[in-house]
Write a structure and sequence with these properties.
alpha+beta; two-stranded antiparallel sheet
């Protein structure tokens, strides 16, 4: 299965996480850690009425940054016990996200091989040595970005 299809399959498995695909930069080399992250979050939310969605996934200073929303359903009153449950869940999800960001931070954003963050042009990028030296990859961000849509998108 191609990376494009793997990324779209991930979105299709967990569409509630990807309601704003235009804000989500999924890079080919980050796909495995992001699949693991989504599986962990989905398992944590199983049987819960909590809402979750990614607000932004992006590359910043050569590493992955993930921002999210986790909350109670709008129709549910904010009872003290539910707020404690939400705080515990938020801490667990933040830990999962930190693990995914760390994993992405040591992977080439193009191919997923172990890599280091280095200067690429005027920016920082985590690229396998061959990709970092390639003239063809003047813009690895565009090359590595996987197109995704959610069910509401055309």
């Amino acid at each position: 299965m191609s990376n494009d299809h793997k990324a779209q399959a991930l979105v299709d498995r967990c569409p509630y996480m990807f309601e704003q695909p235009q804000m989500l930069n999924l890079y080919a080399g980050w796909l495995d850690p992001l699949e693991t992250l989504c599986a962990c979050i989905h398992a944590r939310l199983h049987g819960s009425a909590m809402s979750f969605q990614f607000l932004q996934i992006k590359e910043k200073f050569g590493t992955c940054r993930i921002y999210f929303h986790l909350g109670l359903p709008r129709s549910e009153p904010e009872a003290e016990a539910r707020l404690r449950e939400l705080a515990i869940l938020r801490e667990a999800v933040e830990s999962d996200i930190e693990t995914a960001q760390t994993a992405c931070g040591s992977r080439c954003m193009v191919c997923g091989r172990d890599s280091t963050t280095r200067v690429h042009g005027a920016a920082l990028a985590t690229l396998f040595e061959r990709h970092g030296l390639s003239e063809r990859l003047r813009d690895p961000w565009s090359l590595a970005k996987l197109p995704i849509t959610n069910g509401a998108q055309p």
